[in-house]
Write a structure and sequence with these properties.
Layout: H1 15-30, H2 42-46, H3 48-53, E1 59-66, E2 70-71, H4 75-85, E3 90-93, E4 100-101, E5 106-113, H5 114-144, E6 151-153, H6 163-172, E7 186-188, H7 190-196, H8 199-209, E8 215-219, H9 222-230, E9 235-239, H10 243-253, E10 258-262, H11 270-274, E11 280-282, H12 285-288, E12 295-300
Parallel strand pairs: 6-11, 7-8, 8-9, 9-10, 10-11
Antiparallel strand pairs: 1-5, 1-12, 2-4, 3-5
């Protein structure tokens, strides 16, 4: 169990980015999106309901609780939401990111001013529920292909502004990140081939302009896959290929390139695809379609 529930150590999340996310998320609730002012008591100034119904100085404890079974992620970020409004609050971890949890488990306990806990509630839940939903879905895929040697990957199909958090959640669920953006991996798709004139021309142009950037090439057929390997590609995206076609490419390419199955994959066929011998399964749905994990905040006497 983590000693400091707010710690980002080992998450790969940038401190400044997380701070900015917390500010943006709280601003949606407190100021309608405007930059949070430096007022001494944001809750009294902006949370009409809590300021009216909770006595000044009233202290209490609140438990962040799982309402469904799943895998948790985003707890350190959620913890920072609470301490942003209640800097003196004390936090006790009940779970760590990546843990499997069951309905009723307490994931985090926060003790502090009740007004602040209630004002922070929805923002903290939105972050943790979204991240935990992605982690839970990813774990289902990772479990489905366990033992095959293949790894489940995410894509760039993320919620605008939340990519680092959502890709972190994939890692919490046992998956891996493919690329963070257009800058760290060059991916040659049909439109790039059409613009460049051929796969070979596209690969050569990228290597001339950005020699240190890894190059990946999308292929729709086994023939295109072989063409890409001959052009020097060492990572292939095998788009919407059948298991039979995937096995054909695996046999023909051997260890000359890493192979990723992508396009139209479902959990029902995940293991069959993984057993063709591909190295990766790319699943955009992890970040663009995963439902949240139902979490709640239960207030109780301190």
């Amino acid at each position: 169990m983590v000693s400091d529930p707010r710690s980002l150590e080992g998450t790969g999340l940038d401190e400044a980015w997380v701070t900015a996310l917390v500010e943006r998320t709280l601003a949606e609730d407190l100021t309608g999106g405007a930059v949070l002012p430096g007022a001494p008591d944001l809750v009294v100034a902006y949370d009409v309901t809590s300021a009216a119904t909770v006595q000044p100085g009233q202290l209490g404890a609140a438990d962040l609780v799982a309402r469904a079974d799943g895998v948790v992620a985003g707890l350190p970020v959620a913890a920072r939401v609470f301490t942003r409004l209640a800097p003196g609050a004390t936090l006790t971890a009940g779970a760590s990111d990546g843990d499997r949890v069951t309905r009723g488990d307490v994931l985090l306990t926060v003790r502090g001013p009740v007004r602040a806990l209630l004002a922070a509630e929805r923002s903290a839940l939105n972050i943790a529920s979204r991240a935990s939903g992605i982690a839970t879905a990813t774990r289902a895929w990772a479990d489905a292909i366990a033992g095959t040697g293949a790894t489940v990957l995410d894509t760039r199909k993320t919620t605008p502004g939340l990519r680092p958090l959502e890709k972190y959640a994939v890692r919490c669920g046992g998956g891996s990140n493919k690329r963070m953006g257009l800058y760290d991996v060059a991916m040659v798709k049909d439109n790039h081939v059409a613009a460049a004139g051929s796969v070979a021309a596209a690969v050569a142009a990228i290597r001339e302009r950005a020699p240190k950037v890894p190059v990946q090439v999308e292929a729709d057929t086994p023939a295109q896959a072989l063409e890409a390997v001959e052009a020097g590609a060492r990572f292939l995206l095998l788009d919407n290929m059948t298991p039979a076609q995937l096995r054909e490419v695996v046999a023909a390419v051997g260890d000359r390139a890493e192979l990723e199955a992508t396009g139209g994959l479902t959990l029902a066929v995940a293991r069959e695809v993984a057993e063709t011998g591909v190295d990766y399964l790319s699943v955009g749905a992890l970040t663009h379609s995963s439902p949240i994990l139902d979490l709640a905040l239960d207030l109780r006497a301190s």
